[in-house]
Model the fold of this input.
Amino acid sequence: MAYELAPLPYDYTALEPYISKSTLEFHHDKHHAAYVSKFNDAVKGTDLDSQSIEAAIKALASDPAKNGVFNNAAQAWNHTFYWNSMKPGGGGQPTGDLAKKIEADFGSFDQFAEAFKTAGATQFGSGWAWLVLDGGTLKVTKTLNADNPLTSGQVPLLTMDVWEHAYYLDYQNKRPDYISTFLSHLVNWDFAAQNLAAA
Done:
């Protein structure tokens, strides 16, 4: 039961001018597609082939000998989650229960935003910044390379890709500009709110 490369939840031009068509084509159709293909090839005919990708990620995380398979599984999942963490006309601040929870757990939206920006900016090399639910409390975390919160028992609500290929065509080496733009114009708070409600 192969894991399928989901199409983008919007058109290739939908996030312009903040993320270009070229970036989305390259990032989704090349990088993401390669992770999906390599994961499917690696688990074909094994016990993991019949499991959900989330279950495969958790099983692979505890086996250092299968780190390469884990990387492809986690990156396949992380990217699908990332595409849904953005939307055309996104950005700004959340509303409803998510807004109240952010204010309660971080002190204010601005304090959350500062923590999220710092996580993304200080992730050395490649990785991800996340908003997660951890033991009933919202936290900002960051992970290296393919790692994600599923392996730590946390519930991911939102992610931002800070691998260079996510932003380099549009922002070159200005990762902080990409991070600020993500929060101001791209973040999909509806997706995060749905994940919180389902947790």
User: Anything to note?
Assistant: The chain has eight helices and three strands. The chain has a mean pLDDT of 96. The chain has two domains: 21-84, 96-198. The domain at 21-84 is CATH 1.10.287.990 (Helix Hairpins).
